[in-house]
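Subgroup meeting minutes
Present: P.N., E.W., G.H.
Scribe: E.W.

1. P.N. recapped why we're keeping a running log of single-chain structure predictions: easier to compare across weeks, and new members can see raw inputs and outputs side by side.
2. G.H. added today's entry (619 aa).
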Amino acid sequence: MTRRGSSSSRGRGRGGAGGNSATATHDISIYEEIVNNDSSSNNRNISSLDANPYTSTSARGGRRRHHQQHRMLENEKDDDDEEERATISSITNKRNNRSRRRILLAILLAIAVALGVGLGIGFYVSNNNNNDSDDSSNTANGSSSSGGGDREIDVGNGTNTSTSSSPTPFTTSPYYTDNTIIPKPLPGDMASAIQYHVIMQDISSLISLNDMANEEGQGGGERQPTAQQLARDFIVLYDVLPLSVMDEDSVTGEDTVRTSTAPSETTSSSTAAVGAFSVGASSSSASASSASKASSIVSTNNALPTRPYLQRTTPAYRVAQRYAAAVLYFATNGTNWETNSFWVTPGVHECDFIGVTCEELPIPAITLDEAMQNPDTMPTHDEGGVNTTMERMIVAIDLPENSMGGYLPQEMVAMPYLQRLGLWSNQISGSIPSQIGKLSRLTSLLLDDNRFTGSIPSEIGMLREMTDLAMGMNMGITGRIPSELGSLDKLEQLHLAKMTLSGYIPAAFGNMANLQELNLGYNMLESSLPDSLTKLGNLESLILDNNHFTGSVTSSWRNMTKLKRLEIQMNDMVFNADTDLCYLRTTSSESVGSLEILVADCQGYPPEVTCSCCTSCLR
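Output recorded in log:
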């Protein structure tokens, strides 16, 4: 209708006349503007309705699709957020792990530093204590570095005597290390010097000065120092002499030594023991003199300033001898001996130990220092062409029936002047050391009635001065009789009875032309008797009973005219003694010998041995 009105109005204007044309034109413009504005407004409203799915009718069918797209966008955004959070968490964990590792490393480093400082302080304090102990032992006999009170010290006679400020000796070894290494350059302290010398001269083994005798925890006890360590420590820490006494040989009375006003009971009893037990001593007066001098040393070395008894300027042979004597004491449980007077007593010469006999002999004048400088050229004890000095050296040790236990140490080799070693009827166990074969002056080796094991060392055949060898009544010794024993052409007595020897009698026994007594009874020997035995023209006693010998006695035994005793029973031998042996009987009218005792298996029916002249028949 509007458009129609508009048309008639325009028609009328065109056809009208004159003054209304401008007004009409203006109205038309305003109308068109209004119409155009309404049209654009309607268009905008329609567009907005189309854009809003809740107001636009045409788009409501796409609501579901729109929601789905919106959810997908939100899900993608959530996924991105989750991934970002995971990445951030991973980075944070890595940083935390690195921080924890750094903290742990710092803690471990701090602990290591603390341990190092603690160990360093411990070693420093330990070294200072050892140095204080060394200084105190060199300035006062047994005075403690801490200045403690009275203690008891074992002076070697089985009795403890109370002394002023004296440490208990021989309990631990301040020089013990798990890995003892020969020091280079040469050692400067006495302990290392002794250790170096005895190892380089094959007196002691490295392991004996390195390891403990008992592993920790065995037998429920603590680890104990070896006899070699104890001997070394005795010489270094406890073996001192009063400054007023330069040598015990100079001890003659009150002019040289200030004696104690109240000597201990141990001193008097030890003096009496030395005088009473003088086996092998040259004379009773000499024994009493040694006891008097030893008593003077014991009674004074606790009251005066002291100095080390042995020094690096002491002859090396003398140092080694005292060391070996101390090792023998500790290795055979010296504190349990029935008699041990003055053994390992500080300042008392080893020649004054009970049961020890000495002679003043020339020895190489090589000091301990000089011996360490040239260990490979150390002269032997009997080597000529070297400077000598006179020293009292051990020539005999006699300690029979003395409750000695433990073992016989190889350090006996450090007594090269030893001529007699009598240790029979004790409880010494272990093997007989082969080093005994180096004691070239040894004439008597009496080790029977002990608890030795192993075998007879063939090195004994090197003892060409040997006259008396007794190892019988050691059931633990097994094996064959070494043929090297036949080299002992000066041997007069050989006792190997009641052992567990097997095999046969070596034919080399026929070379022992001076042999007078041969006892091989109660063994497991077999085979026939060697004809070489008939060469023993000086043989007086032959005991072969309780073995497994076979064969017979031949007419060649006629040459054994000095034979006085023959025991051949309890064997598997078959022979006629009437024709082969009875002519040696002193009761025979045709006697050509000295046979007084003849025992054979002449009993039974028929007897294995036919003997009408036997003094006793067995079987």
